[in-house]
Automatic annotation (TrEMBL):
InterPro entries: Alkb (IPR004574), AlkB-like (IPR027450), AlkB-like_sf (IPR037151), Oxoglu/Fe-dep_dioxygenase_dom (IPR005123). GO terms for biological process: oxidative RNA demethylation. It comes from Rhizobium freirei PRF 81. Residues 100-201 form the Fe2OG dioxygenase domain. 2-oxoglutarate binds at N107, F108, Y109, R192, I193, N194, L195, T196, L197, R198. Keywords: Dioxygenase, Iron, Metal-binding, Oxidoreductase. This is Alkylated DNA repair protein. The lineage of its organism: Bacteria, Pseudomonadati, Pseudomonadota, Alphaproteobacteria, Hyphomicrobiales. Fe cation binds at H118, D120, H174. Binds 1 Fe(2+) ion per subunit. Substrate binds at W59, Y67, R68, Y69, D122, R148. One of its GO terms (cellular component) is cytoplasm. Its cofactor is Fe(2+). GO terms for molecular function: broad specificity oxidative DNA demethylase activity; ferrous iron binding; oxidative RNA demethylase activity.
């Protein structure tokens, strides 16, 4: 399938042991920084994913202050846990960007969660790619162009797959239409975890 320029799909990049090790590291992150339910700016409508972060900055959203990065967890007020070394290594190996990532957003999708079409544009540094890692059940990922109404195409992301949104594709609209239950045994209770690594400051 021909993806938009700058968008790369690396199927099966992480083998099963690497997925297990990464999951272990993410479990520790979630213990230190519990998942919270993000709400849309303005409307206050809850998103269906739950999220947390690791690294010096984390992406958060609430009704009053909207989408932003901040150094502390919105519920506990504590700094985000450090980024696990595996993630720094993946960034080094794949991103081709000299500065390290500052934020890893951890999205947890239950089997009925989705994510609407959106752009990742809350970062000051848009030269760095966004690196997205999938764990657990397969999802249907949709990617379009630079305008919301551009034609989109969809493909499945399985556990261990990585997607890079970089270059001309950095601001492409994207979203998750659905999760396919029971397509992976990595997560005991089903669902899907997506990790997005980002450089935030210029
Ligand atoms: C996101 O765009 O933040 C998540 C993408 C995904 O779950 O694959
Ligand atoms: Fe995104």
């Amino acid at each position: 399938m021909l993806l938009p320029n700058g968008i790369q799909h690396l199927p099966g990049y992480l083998d099963h042991p690497a997925q297990m090790a990464l999951l272990e590291a993410i479990r520790a992150v979630v213990t230190a920084a519990p998942l919270f339910t993000p709400v849309m700016p303005g409307t206050g409508k809850e998103m269906s994913v739950r999220m947390t972060n690791c690294g010096p900055l984390g992406w958060v959203t609430d009704k009053q202050r909207g989408y932003r990065y901040q150094p502390t967890h919105p519920v506990t007020g504590r700094p985000w846990p450090a980024m696990p070394p595996q993630l720094l290594d993946l960034w080094h190996d794949i991103a081709g960007y000299e500065k390290p990532p500052e934020a890893c957003l951890v999205n947890f999708y239950s089997d009925d969660a989705r994510m609407g079409l959106h752009q990742d544009r809350d970062e000051q540094d848009l030269n760095a790619p966004v690196l997205s890692i999938s764990l657990g059940n397969t999802c249907l990922f949709r990617v379009g162009g630079l305008n919301r109404n551009d034609r989109t195409l969809s493909f499945k992301l399985s556990s261990g797959d990585i997607v890079v949104l970089g270059g001309e594709g950095r601001l492409c609209f994207h979203g998750v239409d659905r999760i396919y239950p029971t397509t992976s045994t990595l997560l005991k209770n089903g669902g899907r975890i997506n990790l997005t690594l980002r450089r935030v400051t210029a």
